[in-house]
Amino acid sequence: MQIISRTVSVLEEVARRPDGGGLVEIANACSLPAATCHRLLAALAEDELVEQDPLTRRYSVGHGLVQLAGMVTQIGRGASIEAGMTALRDRWRECFFLATVVDDAIICVRSLPTIDPNRMTVTVPLGQPMVPNVAGSGKAILAHVSPAERERLIAAAGGMARFTDKSIVDAEDFESEMKGIRERGYALCDEEAEIGAATVAVPIVLPEGTVRSALGTIGPRDRIVALAEEGLIEDMERTAGVIAGLEQGTIADALVPGI
User: Fold this and answer.
1) Are 125 and 131 in contact (CB under 8 A)?
2) Nearest one of 100, 53, 63, 103 to 81, comparing CA atoms
3) Domain locations in the chain as residue ranges
4) Are 169 and 160 in contact (CB under 8 A)?
């Protein structure tokens, strides 16, 4: 439709001008009569898609258009993260999940169970808070934050929890575990939360070196440990690297708006 085409052309011309554009300038660039261009700009200004400087009378991108662009970007990021996790799930036939720091907790913000109906599996429910000292994803994150932040997140979750004889609850032993995770690049929860289950998790290291999220997989202990020796960890690290490159806000924003 002509009105839509003209409106899009006007928006594009405004967006091309970081210092704003005058009415005649924009109208000429769009091959539109000045009166028509003025009506379109006025309509766009009502929805804050463009704004007019009261002194120079020049038009520039409005707050509403910036917000719209951000929403589209978030949708695209979320879809890209989902695609990477789906590829892992389909390749390894295990449950994969993302956990991230949300306020005072480490929360599962995306979980993809295996689609193999004949495969015994373990899943992580969406929205589940992680017990930091016994969750692979929790340990992967805690190993890369400051000692003060580590203490804060553990305390907020109720302190060091013991679920099995393999749970690490001694402070000195746990700090040794943190060092080991940083050295090898991944966390392994080997029956620390549940007998018979294991988790492997890799940190999502952002370009500036910070870690607030982790990519994990969970399943029967013997199977997960075996897969870890068959290239699973390297595959997860590659996917975590892609996710880190996508993240400009937070993973929670991209996958669970409003969490």
Assistant:
1) no
2) 100
3) 2-61, 71-255
4) yes
Domain 2-61, CATH class in plain words: mainly alpha
Report pLDDT digits (tens) over 214-233. 999 999 999 999 999 999 99
Strand order in the sheet with 105-112: 105-112, 95-102, 211-220, 197-205, 187-190
Spatial CB neighbours of 174, under 8 Å, sequence gap ≥ 6: 133, 160, 168
Q: What is the pLDDT of residues 123-178, one digit of tens each?
A: 888 888 899 999 999 999 999 999 999 999 999 999 999 999 999 999 999 999 99
Q: Does domain 71-255 have CATH number 1.10.560.10?
A: no
Q: How far apart are CA 216 and CA 135, in angstroms?
A: 10
pLDDT in tens, 61-92: 887 766 665 444 444 455 677 888 888 888 89
Residue 53, token pair as written in the block: 């400087």
- Best CA proximity match to 192, nearest among 212, 174, 211: 174
**Percentage of the chain with pLDDT > 70?**
88
